[in-house]
Each structure stands twice: as C-alpha cells, then as structure tokens.
Amino acid sequence: MNTASDPWWVQQWLDLINAYRFKKRLERGWRYAREGHVLSICFQGQKVEAKVQGTEAKPYRASLWLDPISEEDWGYVISALATEARWSALLLAGEMPADIETVFARNGLRLFPFSLSDVHSRCSCPDKANPCKHVSAIYYLLGDRFSEDPFVLFQLRGRQRQQLLEELRSRRQASLQPTPEVSAAPVPQLQQFWDYADPLDPELVIITPSLGDTVLGQLGSLPLASDPRLETSAAQLLVQLRQLYEDVAQSVFLESMASAGDR
C-alpha cells in the first residue's frame, strides 16, 4: 500500500500502519479511503476530525490525535533545529530532514509515533475494535496529506506550520547576530609606569617651600667626619645642595605656571 516514490516520512507512517496485526481491518480501511467513504477530514486544533460514511445512512464521526509536545519541550527542539543550517533549510523548503528524529531523541521526545498504540483514536461506530475500518481510512488519508505537507505531523504534535517556521527563522536570525567586539585592554609599558603626561589641574596653586621647610633645612648641618684639611667642605656642600634644591623648585614652578597659561 506504499510505493517507492513516496517521501521517506510517508513510508515511515505507512510502515507504522502496516505493522498492525489485524490486516483485514486495514484492508477495509484502505478501500474506504480509496473509494471516497471519507466525506470530510480536517484539523481541530491538534486533532484530526473526519466524517466517514459507513453502512448506516448517517456518517460516523472519527477522530485521531497524538500526545502533544509541551511548549517548553518545543522550545528545546526549535533551538536545536536552528543550530543546524541544513535542518532549517530543508524545513523552510517544506521537506522533512531524514535525521530529524535525532533532534527529538536528544530531548527525550519522539516526532513519529513508535507504534499504533501511541496513536489515539475514537469513532462513533458500534465496532469495539480500535482502530476500526473508519479510523484506518483516516490513517491512509493522513499518509496522503503527509506526502503533500510534512508539517501535518508537526501539527499532530502541537505545532502548526506557520508558527514553527516563524520560530525557526527567529532563532536562526538571533544565532547569526554578530557579537560585539570587545577591545583588548592596553598592555602596560613598564618603562612608562611613572610617567605623567596629563596636564596639571589649572586650579592648583603652586607654592614653592622656603628653604627652612625643606629636608635640608630640617636635617641641619651635615654629619661629616671632621678633617682639618677640609674645614669648609661640609659647609660648601650644604650651600651647593641648597642652591640646587632652590633651582629645581623654581624650574618646576615656572614650568607649571607656563603650562597653566597655555590652557
């Protein structure tokens, strides 16, 4: 009841149906589907609702559904699908990736039902067997729908085509956003560690200390060993140091004033 020309996802659905052990019931369902006994079939939310004409004048109402995937789990699945460009490209082109089940399996989920016991169904006919021939007819017509639109299976799991594709595009675009460049911290130059190139604050008041306030003034006379041949050496050295200190202080003062004037 399946052909090699069917897409792989349709073949997988039909293989699931053909694994059912009550073959006669499946054959009657297949004939019902091919002979036009299914008067209408449509989605109501995530359920498939159908009217199937049986032996009675009034058509039977049959429904079929799968266990839905929660919103949280769909978020994980869509995030995983968005990470692989190939998956996104195939889905956006209306094709089912051959390895899509691995994405669901990583999150402990299934897209395709494992067996017919995972497919829930109900029919208003008096037949106590489930699936009855009316529900079996829906199985085969769903296979036709899968061939035209693989997103039917997603809708059975609680995600409509447009919603899934929009979320997939959004996740893909978010993952492709360029990350802002972080400028590297400048490498410190140790030889310039003590350099200060910034101008002084113009509000600063430069006051050169008097000689009495300097370290030389506080130290007093130099404690050099007394030597008759060098009586004046200590005094001369102290005078020279004071002069040098005064020259340096004056130079710093003038440079600071000039820098303040430039601003």
From TrEMBL:
The keyword Amino-acid biosynthesis does not apply. Keywords: Metal-binding, Zinc, Zinc-finger. Signal peptide: none annotated. The keyword Metal-binding applies. It comes from the Bacteria. InterPro entries: Znf_SWIM. GO terms for molecular function: zinc ion binding. Residues 112-143 form the SWIM-type domain. PANTHER family: SLR1429 PROTEIN (PTHR38133:SF1). This is SWIM-type domain-containing protein. It comes from Synechococcus sp. (strain ATCC 27144 / PCC 6301 / SAUG 1402/1) (Anacystis nidulans). The lineage of its organism: Bacteria, Bacillati, Cyanobacteriota, Cyanophyceae, Synechococcales.
